[in-house]
Write a structure and sequence with these properties.
The chain is of the alpha/beta class. It contains 12 helices and 13 strands. Helix 1 crosses helix 2 and helix 6 runs parallel beside helix 7. The two termini are about 35 Å apart.
Length: about 325
């Protein structure tokens, strides 16, 4: 009979739902100016990064998350040379971008210097040396202010931020005003990829608002949905662009195998078959995309909506 572990990580998503995982080692705990960082080991998931009491990434499935979040946009762009990553403190989104030899410059912006250095030190399996790549420039700054002030333009922008917590540091990076500022920083033909929250059948509350906002700002938006074992739910990311630059019929039939082979991009999880699977959104998600009650997220209403969602969880 197996020995029952003495330590458990428990995360409650809703009053009636949550998940738990055994923990057999706590590696390190660090408090930064913005959040608490914990790195633990789970027999089921390997290394687990926990920020402010919520799982952010695990050794088991971070590869799936980052490939499905980054590569649809990178492979949909004909020749990505300049890329901006917003958030992504583990360095894994940067890792996925830097697989593309066409990339000449990558700017990664994160507000929490200590958290990024924490990840650089303790999560080499995630970044795999991305922080030391000469093509990469690391900027420690408020992403909203950076995007509004920079004059640099980009072929692809990856927005890999934590969930929008009411009054939190990232909450104003989920609004029409922020996405419009990103749009102005795109080169012609530029694309944006955004992590767009949970799309489980019993928990799809923020996604309709976010999807409506992205469609409003960019004109075209194609989502993918995939299961993440570490949080026991369906997660989503969305590629956005002008309709002339993001043909959704082409996107849904993206030949990932051909493009990855031609560009010599190594992929562990993402391929043509998987793209067709994750871009075929469930019917309840497609209905939520047309939900008349969904609101365009703005600087004025984002805290109210985020607060309501946090109360429901």
């Amino acid at each position: 009979m197996s020995k029952i572990p003495s330590q458990w990580y428990i995360e409650v998503d809703k009053p009636s739902k949550g998940f738990f995982a055994a923990i057999d080692e706590v590696y390190v705990v660090k408090k930064t100016k913005f959040q608490q960082c914990q790195l633990v080991h789970s027999p089921a998931h390997g290394k687990v990064l926990i920020l402010d009491g919520r799982v952010q990434s695990t050794e088991l499935d971070e590869g799936e998350y980052h490939e499905y979040t980054v590569q649809p946009a990178m492979l949909s762009h004909p020749n990505p040379e300049s890329v901006l990553v917003i958030g992504g403190g583990e360095g894994a989104s940067a890792r996925e971008v830097l697989k593309h030899k066409s990339v000449r410059r990558l700017v990664m912006v994160d507000i929490d210097r200590d958290a990024v250095l924490f990840c650089k030190k303790y999560l080499p399996e995630w970044h795999r040396g991305a922080f030391d790549d000469r093509r990469m420039k690391l900027v420690f700054a408020d992403a909203r202010k950076y995007v509004e002030r920079t004059r640099e333009k980009f072929d692809v922008v990856i927005v890999d931020l934590s969930e929008p917590v009411s009054d939190g540091p990232a909450v104003f990076c989920y609004t029409r005003e922020f996405y419009d500022a990103i749009r102005r920083r795109l080169n012609p033909g530029g694309l944006v990829a955004v992590q767009t929250d949970v799309v489980s059948i019993d928990w799809c509350e923020f996604y309709p608002h976010l999807y409506k906002t992205l469609r409003h700002v960019y004109g075209a938006a194609g989502s993918v949905a995939f299961f993440l074992s570490c949080i026991n739910c369906m997660w989503s990311s969305t590629v956005c662009g002008a309709p002339a630059d993001l043909n959704l019929a082409v996107f849904s039939n993206l030949d990932v195998d051909f493009l990855a082979r031609r560009r010599r991009v190594p992929l562990r999880f993402y391929d043509t078959i998987m793209h067709r699977r994750i871009s075929a959104m469930p019917k309840y998600v497609r209905r939520s995309q047309a939900d008349p009650a969904a609101k365009i997220l703005t600087d004025k209403n984002i805290n109210t909506i985020a607060r309501k969602l946090s109360i429901n969880q």
